[in-house]
Automatic annotation (TrEMBL), chains A, B, C, D:
Its EC number is 5.3.1.14. GO terms for molecular function: L-rhamnose isomerase activity; metal ion binding. GO terms for biological process: L-lyxose metabolic process; rhamnose catabolic process. SUPFAM superfamilies: Xylose isomerase-like. The keyword Isomerase applies. This is L-rhamnose isomerase. The keyword Lipid biosynthesis does not apply. Keywords: Isomerase, Manganese, Metal-binding. The gene is rhaI.
Length: 388, 388, 388, 388
């Protein structure tokens, strides 16, 4: 056994939230490729997400995106989800696909754009009350494309005021989670470009305001696990958007581009108390499946997180600390690498079976016929996508 | 006078080709914002491009994108252009917006995809014969998103074979120009990612195959003027796609992000014989106007190129070479910077008037009422865009 | 006149601190090239720095580096400086050139290394009391080269405790300024890698603890002027280390690599209240002169800052704000660029003469014979350098 | 068995050359830390290198650096090496540590600097004739720090002429290998900054001129395995300098920063025919051990290469090609990842014992007492270092 019982017990608690939009079509500014069987409604997205949970036991909740997932009856949507074995999760606001937000939303210079954006978030909070969601996640496209286009400092103050009004409406059991991003779609300045900005904004709000770390939203070379350690130390790491990238915000399958980085991130999560029942950290995927199939793409992602968590939990922390205190650089590094290089897959497969799950979730899904079924059934209507 | 007569004489030869697609709507994967007056047809794009030339005298040709600018009668389109004071220029192929190219085009593993892509280029050559275009410009989205997805080496060989077939059909007075790009839309590997790859591919073809350098298509920190100098030395710099960027391929107005870089690039162009009547180098814009107006955005761009060319032509090259040979680092740098810091705008304004052009092309265009006119006229129909 | 009287009046207040170490030899890990006339003592460094002030009127103070500039009698050193027309400025600590700091200093796991490093800073404070310095500037090389080598989280806590002890010893009129750096000399993790970390550490200390922003210490593509605006908004921008870079921490002459970036930074400094008599922001150079002469290199740097400040002060802020509120992207950008493209050099030359300074400080210095004099005089002894 | 017999047989051929300078002290521009037992002579470096081979069977040759490893009698040095179980390998020239090369060597504007640099290489060839070395490896620090400092184009022509003269003196069984590097120690332009430049320079020389790829010498985000595939396709991949990096040219232990990248590189090496008896590709380490012990650092490196080669050799290439041709993105990626995630360490340990090597070379070396012995013996004299 390369993975011991303690590790397996810890893995039993793992829950990774899926984004409803991962099941719709997505792409680049050059082209969005469609696929047969793509969902046309929020319900169909949830049904697809439930498949991921069915075969992995790892993905019990689905995040919604407003207005993409707007429905008339959220209680009915929640029942639909529960009937499919999952629950509704984080509510994501959207202030980047309306013409009124061309020059910004919560940070905009235009008072009417700010008002509209604040009201949209207040509506999201109402939806959260119906869906029973804990987290309101805010990612802002706000920024500018040209030096001089707008006033960086004023926009930061605008943002603070907008967030304060939204935060004042968050319930006692709810949280506001503010995401940061290095660049795109703004190409000169972005109003929340780094963890420092997200931190100072949420720190000004209060205890229930936290930072969301998207693993693809950093400058080249950024040590992300350092940010994880720092935010946990400050009590402000609210959630993860997992994905991976070789270049910019590529939104590839988590672990696909740099598995060792994923390992180091998860190691710092565990080290800093961010993993396990009492942790405030929500784990979520945020990816695009441009050329690969969506449901198995999500299955691959949650399995990658699970396998890497197993490795990170396997680090011999006592030996590591001893080597660190001895300044034995090579030994300390070897202890960490030993856990990374360990192959947990066979043990995890066996353990899955003890829990009534398929040993190989990917194969089980592919053999299930679900993909063929939705391709046949979902003909007509408008396929969901980033903008749908 | 900060700009002398020799420089002004040299500037009289300057010609910058405009891309027809710059006048349509463009944006990011998150949102494409539309604007009143956006062209609906190739003719309307050409009419808009002609405005840029009318006020600046700098943009006598318009590049077409096939199939976006497909028409039944190219002779008629050419007449239309000439009636508006401009001519048709480079033909750009497009192998990134058809479902068949999901996994590549000229480099694809699929023989049918390659066949289709080659045939598309043969069709482009036929169009060139009708439009009288010299250059076939090829930018390929080909690449993969995940390690293992396809075979890097085989794709390179496929690409060579595809290009050879296309090149064999190029006329004696025509050229094939191959663009490279660091990444996007492919996020793991790109089949033509750097100047080295473009160079070895076109060098294998023959004399009429050249490299296209897009100023936004490099890794962070890349010294682009070095590549300019190297390609000119090798006789293989065929054309420029001008734009600017702070991050990735942001496609901002040329000179907007790093004016000094534009100056250094133009200095090396002149230094290496790439500027002037006998030069093989075609100058073209390739930008997106996501949040700013398109026609004045293009006017600003060509003016930026002109003003920076004036500065680059003003370098005291004899003094510079003397300082270089003396290893007087500070003096050599000062001589270059002196030209950069010189403000040629008043001299250029006066010179424009001597040539029957407005002193301030930007103001003249804005005062002309054209923008209001097209906003009123062009109602209904489908606005042109990257995909239209 | 391109530069008006208000701007010139504002420029009269400008003061840029010079680093004593800029006058010693410096280089890369590959080679340090020496030059004739390089100082051998703190006094000779100060004498050289005084030359920069003599010809520019811009550099009234000299920063010291301890232990490089340790002397027996700081009162005498101060008198020496004043006799040469300058004063002593910031005290810079050094915890990166002693074998005991191989695995860190203020953040180290080793208690004895931390103790030594804290004591070194207490000694620096005593020196500040003698030199009359206001600022203790701390740049830390602390970090690790390999994942697992040490515990990121524990080191952050160690750092907080170390800084608290130092801060407790800072006088009421003194400040602690904490610099951050993306990487180097540590190549895996750095304990103070970004402005966020520096900010949270100094915010925990108190009002007299501030952030130092070195313009070369960021990830590729980082929008530095955004950080300037943010830190000014938070009241925590304590000082600048000016230099420039194309790649990593190249430490080139300020303004040499990207003049437009320097302009944007200075614009945000002014915009945010960081410029002028009441400002808490200290301006300092921190450069290496590897291949160019050192004294004229420093003269070039302070002139670059002055000329760019003149441009930044010239922005028509009322017109800019109006264009921003109108969302006239092209006009707003043009207003900013207009100030950048204005050439203030002739006006500044004339203004210098009214103040009893040479019109061209660079030429005046080169003609003074000082360089030849020190080359002849300073023979024998050990030339100062980064490590000397 | 995760590693099959075919793979093990292929591994038996693996040979990785060690750099003599890896055993001396190295560091950053900030500090070079010394260690007890550091070699003082070329013989002591070779003796240390022989330890790596003794415990791993992977490192049969040692590369020399001229003038660092100059001796009076190379035949005697070769005998010394052979007596210690290793042989002499590549000769590395050095044109970056002499004052005459301050402004360049083979590319310099100064004719005398070029002459000296060419002569140095001719001397290296004479040494190669005595040591029986096949490869002359050239890495150039040539470049400039400031725009305008020197003429990029002229320097490229100078370089071509210098290389031609050196190449004319290379023996029929010898090769010239030209390394490229993105930046450092030059911070504006580097004369051989990328594979394209190295390729066009060596292609102009002839068949026995090749490119050297140092894995740390690229812009952020560069797809190195693509360059491997391209150079193998062109028949011009002469050698590797293995190391790893998180940021710039960090020169960390190979595989330490991004093990998956190392895997992908080795996969393309094998895919393109660069591995095995008939391959023209020389594998070499080029690292710095700044904070870790040097001999075990080198042992860790060659083991990392061996283990990763085992994984790369284990890819099911037939299944991979089938998945690629089916455009089954997820399956193709999974097949590659399956090999990467396989843990070959136990199999390799067992296999080592069958070959008379210790199962755990690292432990065996540490238990041998060699480190303690040299620390005790090598007292006095000057420790070797990058500059010694």
């Amino acid at each position: 056994m390369s993975i011991d019982a303690t590790t397996l017990a810890a893995l039993a608690d793992q829950a990774i939230e899926l984004p409803s939009w991962a099941f719709g079509n997505s792409g680049t500014r050059f082209k969005v490729f469609g696929t047969p069987g793509t969902p046309r409604t929020p319900e169909e997205k949830i049904a697809d997400a439930a498949q991921v949970h069915k075969y992995t036991g790892l993905a019990p909740t689905v995040a919604l995106h407003i207005p993409w997932d707007k429905v008339d009856d959220y209680a009915a949507l929640r029942r639909f989800a529960r009937d499919h074995g999952v629950d509704l999760g984080t509510i994501n606001s959207n202030t980047f696909q309306d013409d009124d937000y061309k020059f910004g939303s919560l940070a905009a210079t235009s008072e009417s754009a700010r008002r509209k954006a604040i009201d949209h978030h207040l509506e999201c909070i109402e939806i959260m009350n119906e869906t029973g969601s804990r987290d309101l996640k805010i990612w802002l496209a706000d920024g500018t494309n040209y030096p001089g286009q707008d006033d960086i400092r004023r926009r930061q103050d605008n943002l603070a005021a907008s967030l304060a009004e939204i935060y004042a409406n968050i319930g006692d059991d709810q949280r506001l989670v503010l995401e940061y991003k290095f660049f795109e779609p703004a190409f000169y300045h972005t109003d929340v470009p780094d963890w420092g900005t997200s931190y100072v904004q949420v720190a000004a709000l209060g205890e229930r305001a936290m930072v969301c770390l998207d693993t693809g939203h950093h400058a080249p070379g950024t040590n992300i696990e350092f940010i994880v350690a720092q935010l946990l130390r400050l009590g402000k790491l609210g959630s993860f958007d997992f994905n991976s990238r070789f270049y910019a915000d590529d939104d590839l399958i988590v672990g696909a581009a740099d598995p060792f980085q994923l390992f180091r991130i998860l190691y710092e999560v565990i080290r800093g108390g961010g993993y396990g029942p009492g942790s405030p950290v929500a784990f979520m995927l945020d990816q695009c499946h441009n050329v690969e199939d969506k449901i198995p793409g999500q299955i691959r992602s949650v399995l990658n997180v699970q396998e890497m968590t197993a490795r990170a939990l396997s680090v011999d922390t006592a030996a590591l600390e001893a080597a660190q205190r001895d300044h034995d650089v090579l030994l300390a590094n070897e202890i960490l690498m030993d856990a990374f290089y360990t192959d947990p897959r066979a043990d995890l497969a066996a353990w899955r079976e003890t829990r009534g799950l398929p040993a190989n979730p990917m194969k089980a899904y592919l053999a299930s016929g679900y993909q063929q079924q939705i391709a046949a059934d979902r003909v007509g209507g408008t396929q969901a996508g980033w903008g749908a």
